Amino acid sequence: EVSAVAHKIKTHHNDVPIIQAQREKGLIVEPNRDLHKDEVRQIGSLLGLPDELVHRQPFPGPGLAIRTICTDAPYGLDQAKALMQTITPLCSGLSVSPSLLPIRSVGVQGDFRSYRQPLALCGPFKTIGWEALSSLAQRLTNDCHGLNRVTLVLNPDAVLPPIIETITPTTLTPATVALLRAIDHHVTTTLQQAGRLDGISQLLSVLLPIDTMQQGRHSVVIRGVVTNDYMTARPVRPGDELPWPLLQDLDAQLRARFDLDLVLLDITAKPPATVEWE
């Protein structure tokens, strides 16, 4: 059942005014417009298309442009202290240290789109375990209305301030896109060679304008989800679906090869987060 009060959560990049005008004139025929990804795949199988084509992971029309978080100034510093007063008590029981990222990402809560800050956690995640981490991520996004994502810092030696106050000014340049493309290829290839890619519905890397050392570098988020219909999704589970040794090796490789500050793993479900960050 479709809500009658749903907010516009996102638009399609190719549904532009000229197309809308042609649709109103009856010049565009769209017999498949109401099909979701899972239904498109069912039809592809019925048509006899190869499995590698039918089950290929989705890729956004705008490409890596929406996986590069661009900004010229840190966000949310005026509300950061108040937000951390809610965040910190929720984290104290698990020996994790929260760090608020000065950027925004897209999410969805109820019938509305959200544009809120992500949180990074440092801690002994392997000891804590997935169930406790997943429960914490849910509590944080439910109780802290300025958050819509929770991530894990994969470097076990990382120590971050509670509030990160600086960013690396980032725009969509050929060099920035080339960096993300190389990072994304490395992540995908590593998981594929480890035999961990088949169970992931969608795997992506997101470039962040974050360098806690203020050296002009970037950070990256690894986002993997499992879903049947893409209307809702759960994050790929670290320790189970992505073993900790694999993640820590990947973290070390990415930071060394691409001179990154942080490598993060997004552990947020959809909702409240979306699959993509932008």
Care to give the gist of this entry?
This protein is an alpha+beta fold. It has helices at 17-24, 37-46, 51-54, 77-91, 125-128, 130-143, 174-193, 244-258, and strands at 97-100, 105-109, 112-122, 147-153, 202-208, 219-226, 234-235, 263-266.
The Cα radius of gyration reads 19 Å
User: What would the CATH topology be?
Assistant: GMP Synthetase, Chain A, domain 3
Helix vs. strand class: alpha+beta
For the biggest sheet, the summary is: 8 strands, mixed
Oligomeric organization of the protein chains? single chain
Shape summary: globular
Helix content: 25-40%
Structure description:
It is a single chain. This protein is an alpha+beta fold and 278 residues long. Helix content is 32%, strand content 17%. It has one domain: GMP Synthetase, Chain A, domain 3.
Q: Which characteristics define this entry?
A:
278 residues; alpha+beta; GMP Synthetase, Chain A, domain 3; 8-stranded mixed sheet; 17% strand
Secondary structure topology:
Layout: H1 17-24, H2 37-46, H3 51-54, H4 77-91, E1 97-100, E2 105-109, E3 112-122, H5 125-128, H6 130-143, E4 147-153, H7 174-193, E5 202-208, E6 219-226, E7 234-235, H8 244-258, E8 263-266
Parallel strand pairs: 3-4, 6-8
Antiparallel strand pairs: 1-3, 2-3, 4-8, 5-6, 6-7
